Amino acid sequence: MSDQPASSPRPVGPAAVLAIFAGFALFFALAWVAYVPHRPASPQDSAAEKLPADQAWKATPQTRKAYLLELRARQDQQLSSYGWVDEKAGAVRLPIERAMDLVVRQYGPKP
């Protein structure tokens, strides 16, 4: 066994504690700068007149609501009318009720 008495731990000074916290702060600051993506401004942050025509609807809540109402009206019209999807390929659009009747007739129970 050793004849030397066990040494007591030395107290940590305030300068050492401050240096440790400063090291952590520097690490997190560098990680933030290096790894957090810097995204371009979103369309909601721009004025409507500065946006391209295809994104102008995103400018304000009112333009988004108007665009959504217009989109839903267009989709409702497409759901209830006949039309060509791709004329070269022969793909047509049927009213949804008619399409459901045809599917039931084709794949439903046979009498």
Residue-averaged pLDDT, rounded?
84
SS class: mainly alpha
Which strand order does the major sheet show?
1-2
Report the portion of residues in β strands: 5-15%
Q: What's the order of the H and E elements?
A: HHEEH
Please report the total strand number as a whole number: 2
Question: What share of residues is helical?
Answer: 40-55%
User: DSSP helix count?
Assistant: 3
Give a quick summary of the entry.
The protein is built from three helices and two strands.
How would you portray this structure in words?
The chain has helices spanning 14-35, 61-79, 96-107, and strands at 83-86, 91-93. By secondary structure, the chain is mainly alpha-helical. It has a domain at 43-107. The protein has a two-stranded antiparallel sheet. A hairpin with a 4-residue loop joins strand 1 and strand 2.
Keywords, please?
mainly alpha; two-stranded antiparallel ribbon; 111 residues
Blueprint (SSEs and pairs):
Blueprint lengths: L13 H22 L25 H19 L3 E4 L4 E3 L2 H12 L4
Antiparallel strand pairs: 1-2
